[in-house]
Amino acid sequence: MSILVSIIILAALAASARWTWWREKTPGLRVLCYHKIGVAPAGSKLKELWISPEKFRAQVKYLLDHGYATLLFSDLLKAWRGEAVLPEKAVVITFDDGYENNYLHAWPILKELGAKGNIFVVYNTIGKVNSWHNPASEGWVNMATLAQLKEMQDSGVIEYGSHTMNHPHLSALKPGDAAWEMAESKRQLEAAFGREMFAFAYPYGDGAYIPALRETALETGYVFDFSFRQGKTPWPWDRKATTLDRLFIRGGDNIWDLVLQLERGASRL
After folding, report:
1. pTM value?
2. Distance CA 239, CA 224 (A)
3. pLDDT at residue 200, rounded to an integer
4. Which of 229, 250, 256, 267 has a CA-to-CA distance to 56 between 20 and 30 Å?
5. Domain contains 124
6. Which residues form the domain of 173?
7. Based on C-alpha coordinates, what's the Rg of the chain?
């Protein structure tokens, strides 16, 4: 073998090592985290938050073709309470924020393929725009209307959780204001959708690892609180000890990335 060939092989191995194929498979609950399904607008600095409908459909089809069972929050609750057995290849598909593109693109794909999904809704932006965003990064995006959200719920394909009233950095708020963001969103969403909101996701993941804020979330009545930390969560889940982690699906991810996320809890270093 020539020196040049050896160098090429070593370079290829080094490049491939940034993917996690060499890690051992890890057990735990798989929770996928998406945001926007569609094509990122020109000039967007947030392209990793956008998954094209074609790519999303391919990812969901991969899950179903390979024996994964997609769960609603209510399915997960039954498993956590011991009222049902968690499927060996369970996966929870989640979307943060509640964008209109979830209604226009994600929901039809899930419905077509026979999969289930869950959306964390920012209550005060229902039917408005994602006003917490900095327009310098990307223009504001339309949020789903209440009618659209109800239609998705009525289909049996989508369930909801809370993502606060206004999508703030909870750690930047006074304790009472942070508590209000969590409790009021739960109350308003339950009134709007006629069902208990027992799942919560911290905006930006902020507060998930601050004991006082996490205690507030649990005392508010949320059974599940989801972080934005990358990884799988050991199951059975120790609710007092830790949040539920998630697997962030980025716009540039391919099926190989998805496989590594599902099996190893991360795809790239």
Report:
1. 0.93
2. 8
3. 99
4. 229
5. yes
6. 25-264
7. 19
Closest CA to 76 of 27, 28, 29: 29
The pLDDT > 70 percentage for the chain reads: 92
pLDDT-derived band at 268 (thresholds 50, 70, 90) equals confident
Q: Which of 196, 130, 111 is nearest to 162 (CA)?
A: 196
Would residue 257 count as lying in a domain? yes
Quick one: tokens of 116?
């289930």
**Residues in Cβ contact with 39 at an 8 Å cutoff, skipping those fewer than 6 apart:** 50, 52
DSSP secondary structure, 151-201, as one string: HHHHTTSEEEEE--SS---GGGS-HHHHHHHHHHHHHHHHHHHSS---EEE
3-state secondary structure (DSSP) of residue 232: coil
Q: Establish if 60 belongs to a structural domain.
A: yes
The answer as to whether 58 is a domain residue is yes
- CA-wise closest residue to 225 among 189, 199, 187, 186: 199
Least confident range of 8-12, 52-56, 261-265: 8-12
Render pLDDT for 218-266 as a digit per residue (tens, 0 to 9). Answer: 999 999 999 999 999 999 999 999 999 999 999 999 999 999 999 999 9
CATH code of the domain covering residue 215: 3.20.20.370
Strands 69-70 and 90-97: parallel
Sequence letter at residue 118: N
